[in-house]
Every structure is written in C-alpha cells, then in structure tokens.
Amino acid sequence: MTKSCIVTGKKVGTGFNVSHSNRHTKRRIFPNLQKRRLVNPATGRTVVVQITPRGLRTLKKWDAEGKVYDLTKLTA
What 3-state DSSP class applies to 23? Predict the structure, then answer.
C-alpha cells in the first residue's frame, strides 16, 4: 500500500533537516496515516484503508450530508 490518504491525497514529502551550523541533510516528512476498518457505504462491506484524521473528518461530514461515495473507488 502506498503511503497516501485515500480521501485527501496527502503523501510523503521531502525536505531538509537543518542543523544549528546550517548544514542540510535530506529527510522525509510522513503524513499522519491511520489504518482503519471502515464500512463502505456503497457495498456495506468492511474495508481496511489508510487515511489521515483530516480524511476521517471529511468522511464524517459526507455521511452527515448524505453524500454517496465508494471507498474502493477513492484514490484522491
């Protein structure tokens, strides 16, 4: 599984660690991904997905609005 959120599309970024002497070394910045078992509203089955807390809030909002979505088709 790739390290990206299925709803928001957040993925691994790159940057630098900068020391006090201003030396730069490469680093990877990981999103806050959680592995969650969610019920897919389109099929009624449980699906294991990697999702950020922001993505969970978005799904909660979609459920409140009555929006129809399929977790297996989401690949933002």
Answer: coil
